[in-house]
Specification:
This is Dienelactone hydrolase domain-containing protein. By secondary structure, the protein is α/β, with parallel strands linked by helices. It is built from 8 helices and 11 strands.
């Protein structure tokens, strides 16, 4: 299926290994792995978040909640940086979209945030992906136990891949919107997706096999095979992480060689997001 302005595709899932992404990022040499806790991360609208703790199996993790009580819930999954200002910006934005949502960010890194590319790579390399899926399931179930009749999952980069994985592995998920990320075939096969999936990619994305156009087209073929409703949007002239529009996020993207700026593409993506989540999370 194809849609004008942001072309709709689907794909065969290429294998994502962190090393594939590393080859397209600045050299890690010279960086020091120093972490700061979530408490020290600059975050817009931090005061509007309610910090909670969620238990699953034998571990407890922090999560940050914002938005309308008893509204549809959306789990918002971090980029490889961790729970930083940008993912909080996204959660606030989501909570304010009509008709209103209750957004929850699970802290998959347990308080650690990468301050530069090398640290973010190090944190993602060390992530227990199966454990992260369990965190997502616990987050979905927390929302359903706390007033949300239906719950979606969204995420960006690393979180985008995990969002698609949740459509396969978390039966309680009602809808997914993923931004520029495809899970490895070892983690989840999108051909087995059980929840509706909308996915967004930048045409200039250079993360080969993870979020480039080839990966997007491959994802479309997998989603087509699943039989669930799906959309895959590709935005001309946009690179990876094009949704990050805060001053800090723009500066960070430019430092990584992604100078593109297209406010219209961002607004179009949010419009698609809003329509998809409203369609599938309305009771």
């Amino acid at each position: 299926m194809v849609v004008a302005a942001s072309r709709i595709f689907s794909t065969r899932t290429p294998l994502f290994k962190p090393s594939l992404v590393r080859t397209h990022l600045p050299s890690a040499s010279g960086y020091r792995f120093t972490f700061r806790s979530m408490a020290h991360s600059a975050a817009a609208s931090a005061s509007s978040f309610n910090k909670i703790q969620i238990q699953r199996d034998d571990t407890t993790f922090d999560a940050y909640v914002v938005g309308k009580e008893d509204a549809p819930g959306i789990v918002v999954l971090q980029e490889w940086w961790g729970v930083d200002y940008e993912i909080k910006n996204h959660a606030v934005k989501i909570s304010q979209l009509n008709p209103g949502f209750k957004a929850l960010i699970p802290d998959l890194y347990r308080g650690k945030v990468g301050l530069d590319v090398a640290e973010a790579q190090h944190l993602m390399d060390g992530l227990d992906w199966q454990g992260a899926v369990k965190d997502i399931r616990a987050s979905v179930n927390w929302l359903k136990a706390n007033g949300c009749k239906k719950v979606g999952v969204t995420g960006f980069c690393m979180g985008g891949a995990l969002s698609i994985a949740s459509s396969v592995l978390v039966p309680e998920v009602d809808a997914v919107v993923a931004f520029y990320g495809v899970p490895s075939s070892e983690l989840a096969d999108p051909a087995q997706a059980k929840a509706p999936v909308q996915a967004h990619f930048g045409e200039l994305d250079s993360f080969v096999g993870f979020s480039d156009v080839t990966a997007a087209k491959a994802l479309e073929e997998k989603l087509k095979a699943s039989g669930i409703p799906y959309e895959v949007h590709i935005y001309p002239g946009s690179a990876h992480a094009f949704m990050n529009r805060s001053p800090e996020g723009v500066k960070r993207r430019k430092g990584m060689g992604m100078p593109d700026e297209d406010a219209a593409a961002v607004e179009l993506a949010w419009s698609h997001f809003q329509s998809w989540m409203t369609r599938f999370l309305s009771t």
